[in-house]
C-alpha cells in the first residue's frame, strides 16, 4: 500500500511528497556517497512533487531551501514511512523528537558586529551553497573536516553590506533568504571560485579578528536555527540535538527505503528504518 503523505508546510514552503520509485532509488544509489549535499538535492527533486497549494513567495527549488528545511522535509518523509512519527536516530535510543525545533520555522538574517571593523550579516545556509562547499572540499581546493566546513560556511554566510554578491548578482530579500532569479544561471564553476576566494580572505584574518568572527558566527548561527539544529562534524553538515548524549544525525537515501528494498540493493547489513547516526 503506497504511503499517504500529509503536506509539509512552513511560511516558506508547501511541499507535497510522493513515495520514492524504485527506479529513481537505483539511480540515486549509483551516485557517489561523498557528495551528500548534492545527493540530498537529487533525492528531494525525486520525492517532492509539484504542489498547487503553494502561497505567493514560497520556494519550490530544494537548492534554495536552507539546510535545515532540506533535512526537515526528508524527516517528514521518514515520519510517514516509519509509521511511528518518532523514528530512531542510530541505535542508542535517540529519537527524532529530540532533534526537532519546529517551534521556529523560518530564519531571518542576523546582524552582528562590529567585527574586524565591519558590521556583518549572517544569512542562512542554502542548499546550493552547501553543494558548493562540498565540491570545494571533495576536489581538495579547501580543507575538509569540521574546521574546513565551518570556515567555508562562515565565508558563505557572513557578508558585509558592501560585499558584491556573486559577480554582480545581488541579494534580493524574499522572506529574508532567497536570491534573485538570475542565480539559476550562475555556473557551479563561477560560484565555486567566488566562494574559494572568500575562504582565502577569511584565512588571512589575524588570529584575534578571526576569533571574534568565529564567536559572532556561532552565536548568530544559534540564533538563526530553525526546524532542526545545524551542526558540523568531520564529514560536513549534520543535525544535532540539545539532549545530552544524542549523536549527530543525517538522513541519507538508504533510510528512506524499506528494509526489503535496502537489502535487495545491498545497502545494509542491518535493518533500515529511521535515520543514520552521522559518522
Descriptive terms for the model:
279 residues, alpha+beta, three-stranded antiparallel sheet, 13 strands
- Give the CA-based shape: globular
Computed CA radius of gyration, to the nearest angstrom: 19 Å
How many H/I helical runs?
A: 8
- Measured as a percent range, the helix fraction is 25-40%
What's the number of domains?
A: 2
Structural classification? alpha+beta
Task: Compute the number of strand runs.
Answer: 13
Strand order of the largest sheet: 1-2-3
Helix and strand run: EEHHEHEEEEEHHEHHEEEHE
Q: How would a textbook summarize the main sheet?
A: 3 strands, antiparallel
Estimated share of beta-strand residues: 15-25%
Oligomer, anyone?
single chain
> Runs with pLDDT <50, length 5+?
164-183, 269-275
Protein model, in words:
The chain contains eight helices and 13 strands. With about 280 residues, it is an alpha+beta fold. The protein has two domains: about 10-100 and about 245-275, no CATH class; about 110-225, no CATH class. The strands form five sheets. A three-stranded antiparallel β-sheet has the order 1-2-3. Strands 6-10-11 form a three-stranded antiparallel β-sheet. A three-stranded antiparallel β-sheet has the order 7-8-9. It starts with 7 loop residues before the first strand and ends with a strand.
Amino acid at each position: 500500500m503506497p504511503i499517504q503523505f500529509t503536506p509539509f508546510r512552513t511560511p516558506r514552503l508547501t511541499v507535497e511528497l510522493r513515495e520514492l520509485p524504485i527506479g529513481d532509488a537505483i539511480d540515486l544509489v549509483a551516485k557517489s556517497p561523498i557528495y551528500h549535499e548534492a545527493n540530498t538535492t537529487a533525492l528531494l527533486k525525486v520525492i517532492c512533487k509539484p504542489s498547487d497549494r503553494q502561497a505567493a513567495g514560497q520556494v519550490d527549488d530544494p537548492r534554495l531551501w536552507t539546510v535545515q528545511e532540506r533535512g526537515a522535509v526528508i524527516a517528514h518523509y521518514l515520519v510517514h514511512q516509519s509509521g511511528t512519527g518518532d523514528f530512531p536516530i542510530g541505535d542508542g535510543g535517540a529519537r527524532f523528537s529530540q532533534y526537532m525545533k519546529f517551534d521556529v520555522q523560518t530564519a531571518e538574517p542576523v546582524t552582528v558586529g562590529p567585527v574586524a571593523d565591519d558590521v556583518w550579516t549572517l544569512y542562512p545556509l542554502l542548499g546550493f551553497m552547501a553543494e558548493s562547499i562540498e565540491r570545494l572540499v571533495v576536489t581538495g581546493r579547501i580543507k575538509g573536516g569540521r574546521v574546513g566546513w565551518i570556515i567555508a560556511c562562515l565565508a558563505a554566510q557572513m557578508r558585509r553590506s558592501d560585499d558584491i554578491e556573486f559577480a554582480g548578482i545581488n541579494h534580493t530579500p524574499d522572506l529574508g533568504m532567497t536570491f534573485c532569479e538570475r542565480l539559476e544561471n550562475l555556473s557551479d564553476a563561477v560560484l565555486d571560485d567566488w566562494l574559494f576566494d572568500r575562504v582565502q580572505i577569511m584565512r588571512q584574518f589575524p588570529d584575534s579578528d578571526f576569533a571574534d568572527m568565529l564567536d559572532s558566527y556561532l552565536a548568530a548561527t544559534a540564533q538563526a536555527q530553525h526546524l532542526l539544529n545545524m551542526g558540523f562534524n568531520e564529514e560536513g553538515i549534520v543535525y544535532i540535538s540539545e539532549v545530552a548524549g544524542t549523536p549527530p544525525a543525517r538522513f541519507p537515501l538508504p533510510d528512506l527505503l524499506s528494509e526489503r528494498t535496502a537489502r535487495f540493493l545491498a545497502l545494509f547489513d542491518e535493518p533500515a528504518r529511521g535515520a543514520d547516526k552521522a559518522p
